[in-house]
Amino acid sequence: MGTTQLETVPEPKYWHLKTVLTEALDSEFSVGEILPNERELAARFGVARATLRQALEQLELEGRLQRRRGVGTTVAPPRVGVAVGTQQHAWPGAAGDDWQAVDCAQSAPPAAVADALETGRDEPVHTVRRTRTSHGRPVAAELLYIPEASVPELSGIDAPSGPARARAVLRELHRLELEAEERSVELGSARADDAKELDRLPGAPVLVVTTRFVAEGRTAALSVATYRADTCRLTFGDSGNVEIHHGPERQAS
Known about the structure:
The chain has 253 residues and is of the alpha+beta class. It is 25% helix and 30% strand. It folds into 2 domains: 10-75, Arc Repressor Mutant, subunit A (Orthogonal Bundle); 80-235, Chorismate lyase (3-Layer(aba) Sandwich). The radius of gyration is 22 Å and the shape is elongated.
């Protein structure tokens, strides 16, 4: 069977155009700015509109562009950094946390979560649902599972349901001394409920970040956060703020 020398395979025209458009986005446009219409862009770069559409679709998949009905194609905000290698541990809901509490329910968790929490599979736990947005668009959804043993003093009188209940659970959790965090990341596909939360189609690529919070020598809470792969990037270390742009007029931050 013969082999194909990839070096000799010509680059698709739309892919080369994508590279040119990327440089233009970095040097000529700002976040939220509306791009010229397809006819104007095709004329500027001397390509067919079908080729232009392929390049724009690829840039949208990569999170560089947003297409909104009634608005047009705009430059997307920078990706949200997802810290996976930081040494700074903190409970969910601590100062500087960018998540918003949505709801809290008490029910039996999925079997894998129950095993990780070392609770009985039919034993109810507090499930806090939170979301994270950036520049007005949803970028992540989280389910935070907290055993009753981690918040023994929680009262249902003051905050019986909704965001207030979620915040009350997190406040009680902060009474424990956080000893360690263990985090893992994997690529996945958005399930129907995640897709609706993140304004994506089911099956869209996502990053699933699972975090185990340890206190008193046991798993005190378990977070399963689903991030849009087109709007987030993984960061390592305590700063994680290195970002490289391809345009000549913009500097790394």
